[in-house]
Design a protein that fits this description.
By secondary structure, the protein is mainly α. It is 63% helix and 0% strand.
């Protein structure tokens, strides 16, 4: 069984920890709600999406004739990363007076 938090059986490390770090940075930037922080949040969200795609390919690829069974969490991670970028486009930034 290979998970995002324990992928030692394939010497892949812990890719889930980086998702947690990127998500925390993303939420912090969105909560600041400044124009510069929303731009940084968009970059972090796009980087997170790239990391998700990398992990999807790496964790779901067949190796030595053995293909892993994809669980719902992998697809949930893909959807939530894409949804975070799309929903960021609808955030209204605060206007300084």
């Amino acid at each position: 069984m290979v998970t995002g938090m324990a992928a030692e059986s394939i010497n892949f490390g812990k890719p889930g920890l980086f998702h947690i770090f990127l998500t925390a940075c993303f939420l912090l930037m969105v909560l600041l709600n400044k124009s510069w922080s929303l731009r940084v949040a968009f970059f972090v969200g796009a980087f997170n999406m790239a990391w998700v795609l990398r992990n999807y390919i790496a964790l779901s690829a067949c190796s030595g004739g053995i293909c892993p069974q994809k669980q719902y969490g992998l697809f949930l991670l893909l959807g939530s990363s894409l949804l975070s970028i799309v929903l960021l486009l609808f955030v209204k930034k605060s206007v300084a007076k």
